Amino acid sequence: MYKLGALHTIKPTGAVHNASVIFLHGSGDTGKGVLDWVKFLHKNFSSPHIKFLFPTAPTRPYTFIGGEPSTVWFDRYKLTPEVPEHEESISMIQTEIKKIIDEEIKSGVPLSRIVIGGFSMGGALSLHLAYRFIPGLAGVFALSSFLNNGSAVYNNIKSIDTPLFMCHGDKDEMVPLQWGKDTFDQLTQLGVKGEFMKLPNTFHELKSKEIERLLKWIEMRLPPTVKN
User: Fold this and answer.
1) Residues with catalytic annotation?
2) pTM (global) more than 0.85
């Protein structure tokens, strides 16, 4: 079992913490790396009542780069939609992310007040978590992200009730726009409700407009007042 690296957070700016967001970085990055990226694009990326958590993936051999070690959430053979998913590593890492969620629940935040999402590989894992392993989340987001053809998410979907936000650059050469759109379309055909945002003149990267829209979407999913 590969252990997670450092966990970084953005604490609520107010007195009450009643919601949480887990943001998973892309392959080869760290929790601090994506936190710094988000803060660079949106200096006021915070909320009075929401805690943002940025975990770091384990360092493990990564087949895609010849077995060299990298901070990746799961292994994969190639970066194309045609190859099979590495189910063993996906199943292993989901138990580690569940531990983070369990700690938030122990602190008093219900599952229905937790959003999970991420960039690229982090978004892919988030789709597995929300629709296969942890039904009942408040929402899931996937930025410049994907699911492989024949994904276990499509074949073993446990819940369609978690709202989805996806965003993708139209000039992304690493994960082409059509791959992201196909992922969104297949999920919505299964009954998932969501929003897909296309970013013009954008490569495989985060953009300030994207982060601004994401924060608004999160705030809609996790309003400050919890209804009884």
Assistant:
1) 120, 172, 204
2) yes
